[in-house]
Amino acid sequence: xxxxxxxxxxxxxxxxxxxxxxxxxxxxxxxxxxxxxxxxxxxxxxxxxxxxxxxxxxxxxxxxxxxxxxxxxxxxxxxxxxxxxxxxxxxxxxxxxxxxxxxxxxxxxxxxxxxxxxxxxxxxxxxxxxxxxxxxxxxxxxxxxxxxxxxxxxxxxxx
Length: 159
Prior knowledge:
Blueprint: H1 2-18, E1 27-38, E2 44-45, E3 53-58, E4 63-69, H2 79-86, E5 89-99, E6 102-110, E7 119-127, E8 130-134, E9 138-139, E10 148-157
Antiparallel strand pairs: 1-2, 1-3, 1-10, 3-4, 4-5, 5-6, 6-7, 7-8, 8-10, 9-10
């Protein structure tokens, strides 16, 4: 009986200690950095410049808005310049859910039509007022020569 009670207490303690309280996600988070890590070498690079801008907003109704823009964007005049702007933005919205340390968005609207009606899963961790997000390892069409990469996106709580 004592062994069972201790096991129940330990499981309860471990679950509550490591469970994500979804309310900690709620609110606006301002982009601090966007880096890409190369799995094979550990190389880190900034695909949208040293100082990209952006926000992610999580609501209590499980809606998320995400927008990230590259450093130094300028208004476009030509078709080519307008096309280039598409390479310096990531934006989407949809309903989200939290599963363990993953935020999963059912994408409804996105800058990239291929994302619409997909689920985008991201590991994350919150440390005080910092939210760090990790994409899965994958080969990105933007830099296929680097093979497997993952994005590491860091936000701070907007006040």
